Amino acid sequence: MMGAAAAPCSPSLLRRWLLGGLVACLAAVCAGCWDRIEVTELAIISGVALDQAGPQSVRMTVSIVAPTRVRTPGSGAGEASPSPDVVISAEGRTVVDAAVALQAKTGRRLFWGHIEVILVGEALARQGLAPVFDFFARHRQPRLRTLVAVVPGDASDVLATMAVIEPSTAAAVTRLAELHPAALITLKDFLADRLEQGREAVVPVIRVASRGAAQPGTLQISPDKEPDPPPSVQRDPLQPELVGLAVFRGDRVVGYLDWSESVALLWVRGQSIVSSVTVPLGSTDQHVSLTIVRSATEMRPRFEGDRIVMEMRLFGEHDLIEDTAGVDTDSPRVVKLIEQELAEAISQSVRRAIAKLQKEFRSDAFGFGAAVRRADPARWRELSARWDTVFPDVVVELEVQTFIRRVGLTSRSMGTPRPQLLTDDELERRVMGR
Amino acid sequence: MPQPDAARLASLSQEAARALARYEDQLGRLSSVKERAQRLQILLTATQTLEDLPLCDVLALNRRTLEHLFEACSDFIMRPLSIAGGREAALIYLDGLVDSKRLDDLALKALLYDAFPLAGSEPGPAPLSQTLEKRVVAVSQVRSASTVREVADAVLHGNAALLIDGEPTALLLDVSSFEHRSVDEPQNEAVIRGPREGLVESLRVNTALIRRRLRTPELKLDPVRAGHLSRTEIVVAYIRGIAPDVLVQEVKRRLTRIRIDAVIDSAYVEELIEDDPYSPFPQVLATERPDIVAANLLEGRVAVLVDGSSFALVVPITLWSLMQASEDYYERYFIGSALRLLRYLFALIALTVPAFYIAVTTFHHEMIPSALLLTLAATREGIPFPSIVEILMMEISFEALREAGVRLPKTVGAAVTIVGALIIGQAAVQAGIVSAPVIIVVALTGIASFTFPRFNLGIAVRLLRFPLMFLAGVLGLYGLILGILVITIHLAGLRSLGIPYLSPVAPLSVGELADVVVRPPIWARGFRPRLTGYPNPRRQPPRVKSGPESWEEGEPSPGAAPAEGAAP
């Protein structure tokens, strides 16, 4: 039949068109839909946990969303359906090796395109993450927007917890991180930090929240009445919890920071922070709480001979959201005093973080090196090789400026006056006296 | 070719021979015996070539000729008369095409009574037909004809022909009138606001409807005939001075080029004058609304009105003008603009959404938001068919449902639609044959394909989405983009009467883009489209925007007018 075209008689225009159409159709049909994959042939992975399994082996745990167990609207909700997650793990010499082993256990094709979080166990993280993340950065399916987190202990434990509010545990971790933008550090951020000279990476730390103690006192069954049905509300279930930041040196985790230090660190790094601080007033046990509305950082190195002095200025704008002391928040004098107290508290946590990073972890997660590089590239070229030894001796001149912009909807002038636990004068005496 | 029987032929030939002998001068034009024989031959053999004969001044012969021409036509009526002192005459017409009341009152009565005393037998300087035309027949349109063809043609168009013995001309009296639909709202182009008149099947009514909107002698209505059996009257309407002459000439050239037996509807004309007969896209705007025709004439376009069709054709058009509804201009321009943008969005949806769904769910799962993918996966669980089969099934059923609804009577159509929607929508999902998202996609594209203001463009787009679906099923988004590219290339090369189909976008004309993207306010439309309206580019003087200050400039404000009137 193809001979007709090759025949010496020149085909008419119509025949040429028909032949062209036939070839196009056959090409489409022969090529077919060979790489067509229906959604139902996929095992959609929502979260990955990587742990050290042995001296040279990685254990990969994935949570796969089983579509049959996803509760769709209209499919008769009401009964508490089991979590749609199925958690499977396999071991291998490398990540891909483990993935191949995982695929052997899964009837559907593993699909990496919708991973929401990659959790790395502490043991593996201390070994170095570069070989682990290579696959996730190289393969086309995983997204660079995937959240990265370190788990003290076994990362697979987090995936194995039951998601309470979110449809899957991985989603729960992601929502948790999104709520605290400080902790929303993605694979892309991590890789960017690794590539930037003079700034080490940080990654949020997530662990399984310890189950609250059983509280028999809350359930009071009087003997007279019918016994109430057991409460269907799940109380303090095992669930992921965000505890702070893990600090890296190179691709290895070297230590952890608690929340207040983490906030300080991110503030210095110039990342946006959504957080609230509670500050004791004048060393009393009376507190005010404030949220950060806007923050900014200025960091400029000054070179005094061999000494590097880092001039660091932090700006913060705050809203007052709680006042247990009953101070007069209408008075500008008091607001000034609170601002002072706040600045003091912030600089304390910054100094604590600096001390930890310089002396304990020896990790330049602040980006002092990057600041030097930007200010004096020639000097950075000379310093960069021995930055690890120079960094701990960088002197920081810290200045914190805080502004309270709003004090909330209530004030002392409205409603019944509360007993003022801390008078203005007393507050001033205590703040200024220090 | 009908073969006249031998007896009639014999008698006809006798009479013809007599006539030819008597009027040697007329035959004197035939220079040779051979030619004379040919004429005889023509006369005797072919009914169709009877038309080529000239009229002669023997009434009996003319009557014979016409009787043969209209042989076996039950509506052919020949009324013998005796007028003007006994001259034999005959009134010929087709029953039903003429207004018999007018014919009786104005022509027949006048001829029989008023013309009888005329001294027709007197040899006068003017032939009797001229006297009759001037003094007797009370019909406004009277012509004279001297060939059988002219007479036959006029009779077929509803004229009555008066043949008088002794004169080689016929008097054609226009008493045509036939039943036509009354002017009512066009069913397929309804508007919420705007004129509710629609074109009808009668050409004269249609030209009147347009003329009533453009009362200017510059509105030209050039007649053309097409169809050698139907002899349909076609009118080329344009505004001289606005429509380019070359365009008018081209339209007329294409119309005269039509070689077809009959033009039943303007759709025949459309197919015979368009630039690219292989394109799925309409290159002619067919509308039932005289206001649309008038508005297009004002943009320098040309309208083609076909007798017997209630659809006027407007050429040349662009893709964008097919996306515009007349209502855009009858609502406030904010709303018109918003609706126009909405229409573009839904045009895109109608073309691409099923293909996009197929491509994304079978090739590019990473493009779907995680939560949506999970929902999709959950609904697709247990569906036996691949996405493309599922979508094709539903799209084809939808098209069938629509087709069934169009052809059925209105009352039954609604029932079919409801039953079809229930079966296809509800039952197919519950039975687990089709997934719910597919229903949503099909319904969305269905709705989107009905947002096209022009039905023929909607059909083209509906058709094109099937190849796109196949391409997406085979090659994913790559195939979809490929298909869209092919369509775009085709559109970019398409022309309507020589005007690029995508203008003013594809040959870019920045100033005219406003009328493509949004609906500009009437006072801001200063210029006609450059490619069609260039002989008279300005629509209106500049600065016609309304507002309180425009009163102060020229005429007195309406508030001041009564005060002035009260002063004297």
Distance between the termini of chain B: 84 Å
What is the radius of gyration of chain B computed over CA atoms, rounded to a whole number of angstroms?
Answer: 32 Å
Task: Indicate the mean pLDDT of chain A.
Answer: 81
Number of domains of chain A: 2
Low-confidence stretches of chain B: 556-568
- What's the total number of strands of chain A? 13
Rg of chain A (C-alpha, Å): 30 Å
Shape of chain B: elongated
Overall average pLDDT of chain B: 83
Q: Structurally, how many domains make up the residues of chain B?
A: 4
Helical amount of chain A: 25-40%
Specify the biggest β-sheet of chain A: 6 strands, mixed
H and E order of chain A: HHEEEHEEHHEHHHEEEHEEEHHHHEH
Name the chain pair with the biggest interface and residue counts per chain.
Answer: A-B, 28 and 26 residues
Major sheet description of chain B? 5 strands, antiparallel
- End-to-end C-alpha gap of chain A: 100 Å
Structural class of chain A: alpha/beta
Report the strand count of chain B: 12
Roughly how much helix do the residues of chain B carry, as a percent range? Answer: 40-55%
Structural class of chain B: alpha+beta
Top keywords for this entry?
A: GMP Synthetase, Chain A, domain 3, 6-stranded mixed sheet, 4-stranded mixed sheet, 27% strand, globular, B: 568 residues, 12 strands, elongated
Provide an overview of this structure.
- The complex is a heterodimer of chains A (434) and B (568).
- Chain A is globular and about 100 Å long.
- Chain A has 14 helices and 13 strands.
- In chain A, a hairpin with a 2-residue loop joins strand 11 (287-304) and strand 12.
- Chain A has 434 residues and is of the alpha/beta class.
- In chain A, the strands form three sheets. In chain A, strands 1, 2, 3, 4, 5 and 6 form a six-stranded mixed β-sheet that branches. Chain A has a four-stranded mixed β-sheet with strand order 10-11-12-13, sandwiched between helices.
- Helices cover 33% and strands 27% of the residues of chain A.
- Chain A folds into two domains: 39-67 and 83-210 and 236-257, no CATH class; 270-434, 2-Layer Sandwich (GMP Synthetase, Chain A, domain 3), CATH 3.30.300.
- Chain A has helices at residues 3-6, 13-31, 95-105, 122-127, 130-138, 155-160, 169-179, 187-195, 259-269, 332-361, 368-375, 377-383, 387-390, 424-433, and strands at residues 42-54, 57-65, 85-92, 109-111, 117-121, 147-151, 202-208, 240-249, 252-257, 276-280, 287-304, 307-323, 395-406.
- Chain B is α+β, with helices and mostly antiparallel strands.
- Chain B has four domains: 1-46, no CATH class; 53-174, no CATH class; 203-317, no CATH class; 333-500, no CATH class.
- Chain B contains 23 helices and twelve strands.
- In chain B, strands 1-2-4-5-3 form a five-stranded antiparallel β-sheet, with helices on both faces.
- Residues 556-568 of chain B have low confidence and may be disordered.
- Classes of the chains: A alpha/beta (434), B alpha+beta (568).
- At the A-B interface, strand 1 of A face helix 14 and helix 18 of B.
